Automatic annotation (TrEMBL):
Residues 13-90 form the Spt4/RpoE2 zinc finger domain. GO terms for molecular function: RNA polymerase II complex binding; translation elongation factor activity; zinc ion binding. The keyword Transmembrane does not apply. It holds the Pfam family Spt4. Keywords: Centromere, Elongation factor, Metal-binding, Nucleus, Protein biosynthesis, Transcription, Zinc, Zinc-finger. The SPT4-SPT5 complex mediates both activation and inhibition of transcription elongation, and plays a role in pre-mRNA processing. This complex seems to be important for the stability of the RNA polymerase II elongation machinery on the chromatin template but not for the inherent ability of this machinery to translocate down the gene. The keyword Lipid biosynthesis does not apply. It comes from Coniophora puteana (strain RWD-64-598). This is Transcription elongation factor SPT4.
Length: 117
């Protein structure tokens, strides 16, 4: 049985600014981001967690089978691990990460839905 976070508990959750996965700060600290740790480097770093995640997000989606979920495709999370994802995340990744994405030929798309196709 899955538990939906209560509003009080959800205030403790944080969403990754790059992939929008929602986790408790201790999970980011212990394991980093399961989708983009290579870029975000949050594992073991409270400072990186504070600048690479946010508590300002709207809605939570449970993604169980990312590859076959139309919602995951719509949210651009179909290539990510299963988990809880924010519908909309307010904020931007740090400038150094945005530059690294550009260097890798990846276009950064903020997760606040301001750039919908």
């Amino acid at each position: 049985m899955s538990v939906i976070p209560s509003q009080a508990k959800s205030k403790q959750l944080r969403a990754c600014l790059l992939c929008s996965i929602v986790q408790h700060p201790m999970d980011f600290r212990k394991n980093g981001c399961p989708n983009c740790e290579e870029l975000m480097q949050m594992k073991g770093s409270p400072d990186r967690i504070n600048i690479c995640t946010t508590t300002y997000f709207d809605g939570i989606i449970a993604v169980i089978d990312p590859e076959s979920s139309w919602v995951a495709r719509w949210q651009r999370t179909s290539k990510y691990v299963r988990g809880m994802y924010a519908v909309r995340v307010k904020g931007r990744v740090p400038e150094d990460i945005e530059t690294e994405l550009e260097n890798r030929g990846i276009k950064y798309r903020p997760r606040d839905q301001t750039d919908q196709d």
